[in-house]
User: Which sequence fits this backbone?
């Protein structure tokens, strides 16, 4: 023990690390900031450290080559010792980071910790959030399967909508004019070199600022921030009532961080990494590139926004959200901090959470997609084994109607449910709609023969409540 | 007096060295920056030559049928493996006529599928639908499907490779 102590004394004498870092670790913080509300930032940091460790480990085994990455992923998942767990932790750790950053941001916004003198804390945090989103997306792409390839195309197409420079940005993303040898190498470089370097830089700044300006005290209603007097008041508070960050405040961070890390490990052990899709083959069109869960709400947004506005929403929507977040501390950097006196802040958070969860819930079922795997109508549902109603039902299966319309529980959700269409529309109305289409329905006038059309209409006209009840008896 | 001169001399020396440092630093950054930024941006500037790729003999295609064909893209790097392949929808519309559509939906590039019964192309991602001539039938796509140039050469159907069509504003 004595020799260890002497070794440390020698090391500390030559480096000065103890005296340089000691005061930072033990610096006094406001007593009411030692709270369970304040653990999400450090938990994000712990999750990030896990991402670095597991990411470097994966880099030992991963081959960033468009032709071979898929095989190396299979090798990592199925053959290496612990590889499956490491990949699992890296995947779920990414989810944890997105989730924890979200909670941390909401906490900081609700307690208005971004106000004077902590404007730069918020701004560096917004940059960190954006970098994390880029990491999440590029990580999804270098999980180089079929979904990755098609997600890259979808992302490039979105970039293509940027006015004037869209095509260049798109081709920069995919590394040329086609998906291929250059695409994965570039995504790999973003994911493991460029963005992590920026992350380290901004995490350093973020933490340095926390030391420099101190952890914000938990807000009290009726005690607004006044830039003229705030610093002095804060210093007095910390001097008189402050408690050392380590260990009095930090133990909660350690407890929550431990829970986060353990949870990620357990999920990795039990569920494991996401299954690899089919190999990354741009000529395989049997693909439905749905992104990882944290982007599903945006996927829904892209489907649901009005087509006339989508180019603007697609490009300027995210820009506007980013700019609003970035400039938030300049919109208001003094005044009330307590959420009890900031009803608008609470309303904005509630509205944001509600819209994201709403879009997310819709995104999971994606009712706007044709359901190519819909089960065809059975003769029992059709209600006839021959004749025009039977033929019409078969046409309904065959002509793709089923992919978008549901009848008696079979089919897609893009168009209206037609189970009781016979009660709602007359024969003429049904004919007119099939022929001309409208809104989101293609017109079938050019592709149906008169006989086919007639049978389809008879079939649809037979979809009445009365008939269904008869057939179910 | 002499002391004052000395100070101003020192200041100008200092200013000179400051300028030298900034200039040399900037110059070094620009010199190494050109090849670095240049090589990163190269794929945007270098346009691969479109190449005619054979996809099968004319006699193997049935008139009226729309089928998926795959071929090697215009810029296959040696290590691209299976990712150098690309696909297109090809229809033999007459004895000697072919028409070829991009598989990429004009909305956000997802792969559209040909639904033969309905004679429609349908996109699984956001519900884009196209008529058999490639024009928009329903959903969000702002324009119809892109076409590839296609020709017959020595009894072979050939498709001119093209970039992934990027829908711009």
Assistant:
């Amino acid at each position: 023990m004595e020799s260890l102590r002497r070794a440390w004394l020698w090391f500390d004498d030559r480096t000065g690390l103890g005296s340089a870092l000691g005061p930072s670790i033990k610096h006094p913080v406001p007593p009411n900031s030692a709270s369970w509300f304040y653990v999400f930032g450090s938990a994000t940091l712990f999750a990030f450290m896990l991402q670095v460790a597991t990411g470097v480990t994966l880099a030992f085994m991963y081959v960033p080559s468009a032709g071979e990455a898929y095989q190396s992923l299979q090798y990592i998942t199925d053959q290496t010792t612990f590889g499956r767990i490491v990949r699992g932790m890296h995947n779920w750790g990414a989810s944890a980071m997105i989730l924890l950053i979200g909670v941390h941001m909401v906490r900081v916004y609700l307690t208005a910790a971004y106000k004077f003198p902590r404007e730069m804390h918020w701004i560096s945090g917004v940059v960190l959030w954006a970098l994390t989103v880029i990491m999440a997306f590029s990580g999804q792409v270098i999980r180089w399967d079929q979904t990755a390839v098609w997600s890259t195309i979808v992302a490039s197409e979105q970039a293509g909508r940027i006015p004037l420079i869209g095509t260049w940005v798109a081709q920069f993303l995919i590394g040329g004019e086609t998906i291929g040898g250059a695409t994965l190498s570039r995504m790999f470089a973003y994911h493991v070199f460029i963005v992590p370097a920026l992350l380290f830089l901004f995490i350093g700044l973020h933490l340095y600022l926390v030391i420099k300006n101190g952890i914000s005290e938990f807000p009290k209603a009726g005690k607004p921030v006044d830039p003229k007097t705030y610093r002095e008041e804060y210093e007095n508070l910390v001097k008189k009532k402050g408690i050392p960050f380590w260990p009095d405040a930090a133990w909660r961070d350690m407890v929550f961080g431990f829970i986060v890390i353990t949870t990620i490990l357990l999920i990795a052990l039990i569920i494991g990494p996401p299954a690899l899709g089919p190999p990354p083959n741009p000529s395989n069109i049997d693909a439905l590139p749905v992104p990882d869960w944290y982007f599903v709400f945006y996927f829904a947004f892209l489907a649901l926004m009005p087509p006339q506005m989508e180019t603007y929403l697609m490009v300027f929507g995210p820009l506007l959200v980013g700019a609003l977040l970035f400039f938030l501390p300049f919109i208001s950097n003094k005044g009330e901090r307590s959420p009890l006196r900031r009803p608008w802040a609470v309303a904005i958070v509630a509205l944001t959470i509600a819209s994201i969860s709403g879009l997310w819930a819709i995104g999971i079922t994606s009712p706007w997609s044709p359901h190519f795997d819909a089960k065809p109508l059975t003769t029992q549902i059709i209600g006839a084994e021959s004749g025009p109603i039977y033929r019409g039902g078969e046409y309904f299966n065959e002509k793709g109607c089923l992919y978008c319309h549901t009848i008696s529980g079979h089919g897609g959700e893009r168009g209206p449910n037609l189970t009781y269409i016979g009660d709602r529309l007359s024969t003429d109305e049904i004919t007119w709609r099939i022929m001309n289409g409208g809104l989101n329905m293609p017109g079938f006038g050019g592709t149906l023969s008169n006989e086919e059309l007639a049978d389809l209409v008879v079939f649809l006209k037979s979809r009445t409540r009365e008939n269904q009840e008869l057939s179910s008896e | 007096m002499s002391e004052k001169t000395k100070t101003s001399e020192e200041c100008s020396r200092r200013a000179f060295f400051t300028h030298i440092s900034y200039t040399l630093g900037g110059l070094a950054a620009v010199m190494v920056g050109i090849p670095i930024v240049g090589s990163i941006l190269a794929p945007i500037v270098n346009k691969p030559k479109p190449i005619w790729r054979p996809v099968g003999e004319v006699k193997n295609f049935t008139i009226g049928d729309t089928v998926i064909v795959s071929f090697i893209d215009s810029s296959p790097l040696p290590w691209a493996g299976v990712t150098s392949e690309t696909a297109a929808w090809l229809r033999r519309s007459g004895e000697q006529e072919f028409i070829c559509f991009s598989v990429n939906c004009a909305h956000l590039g997802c792969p559209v599928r040909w639904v033969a019964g309905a004679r429609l192309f349908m996109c699984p991602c956001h519900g884009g639908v196209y008529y058999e001539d490639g024009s928009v039938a329903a959903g969000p796509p702002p324009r119809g499907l892109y076409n590839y140039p296609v020709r017959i050469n020595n009894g072979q159907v050939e498709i001119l490779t093209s970039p992934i069509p990027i829908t711009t504003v």
Chain B has a mean pLDDT of 92. Chain B touches chain A through 59 residues (CB under 8 Å). DSSP finds one helix and eleven strands in chain B. The radius of gyration of chain B is 29 Å.
